Amino acid sequence: MPEDQSRPTSPTVSAVRVVADQDRPVIEVTVASPIDVVWPHLRDPELIRRWHGWEDPSLDAEIDFIYRQHSEADDEAHVIRSKGWPEPGAEDLGDRFDVTAAGPEETVVRITRGPRGVNADWDAMYDDITEGWISFLAQLKFAVERHRGVDRRTVFRSWSGEPGPRIQDLWAADPAPPASGATWLDTDGQLGFVVDAYGPGLVVLADKPGPEPGTAVSSMAIVSTYGLGESEQAEVESAWAAWWSARHPEQPGD
What InterPro entries does the database record attribute to this sequence (predicted)? Predict the structure, then answer.
């Protein structure tokens, strides 16, 4: 990203970390809360809704698919393993969640991705799913640390097509007001930052790299807000819709 005064300040909390090679990435985050608070946020669908993905009619079905139908949990060991996905009867080939106490008030949530090469569908989605888990763990940390017990509202925008500018660079050049604040997430493909006016809320911008440096073939924005009234939420939605459609008029992300 080019240097710009719009870029958020340095993080005051640990970012999501990718700590293993590309063959089987390990994604982890440290949450400043006890394990008995964090673990239910990976088991109770109502708590999972507060950080997984974004508001969508299919969200409940996605949560049920991932955390109920196709996983098994060990509540004593705080481990979740894929069950029958990506291949029936091959649990070792799926993703694994390990939740570990790092102290009385710190918990590490670690996702070990399943290996590539299981089947064509799995490989086609692999990188997108990895990036999705990076976004969602940042949202988990934010929900638990900053808004425990509070439901969120979200705004989601996405684009895909021929290679074009990265959403992070477009935002840096001309941010959507009042979207600026301290960095919460900073990886090669994603930027997340806190916006006080959203509750405070969290904005995550993600780009899938294109063939040339500085280009993307898809981009998305997830905006999580807390405690806003209906008119305030509508203003956030309107501001992001206008900002997005001005840059991607062919795919406004409605």
Answer: START-like_dom_sf (IPR023393)
Provide, rounded to the nearest whole percent, the portion of the chain with pLDDT above 70.
89
Q: How confident is the model at residue 181 (pLDDT cuts 50, 70, 90)?
A: confident
- φ, ψ of residue 107 to 5 degrees: the values are -135, 135
| List of domains in the chain | 7-149 (3.30.530.20), 152-254 (3.30.310)
Count how many Cα atoms sit within 13 Å of the Cα of residue 203 in the half-sphere of its side chain: 26
pLDDT of 202-227, one tens digit each? 999 999 999 999 999 999 999 999 99
Q: Report helix, strand and coil shares of the chain as percent, to nearest 5.
A: 30, 30, 40
Residue 111 near residue 133, CB atoms below 8 Å: yes
Dist CA 42 CA 54 (whole Å): 16
* Phi, psi dihedrals of residue 130, rounded to the nearest 5°: -60, -45
Q: Can you tell me the distance from the alpha carbon of 254 to that of 242, in angstroms, rounded to the nearest whole number?
A: 11
| pTM score, whole prediction | 0.91
Contacts of 86 (CB under 8 A, 6+ apart): 93, 94, 114, 118, 119, 121, 122
* Cα–Cα distances in angstroms (integers) from residue 136 to residues 200, 205, 233, in the given order: 17, 12, 21
- pLDDT tens-digit profile of 134-158? 999 999 999 999 999 999 999 999 9
Give first-to-last CA distance, the chain, whole Å: 27
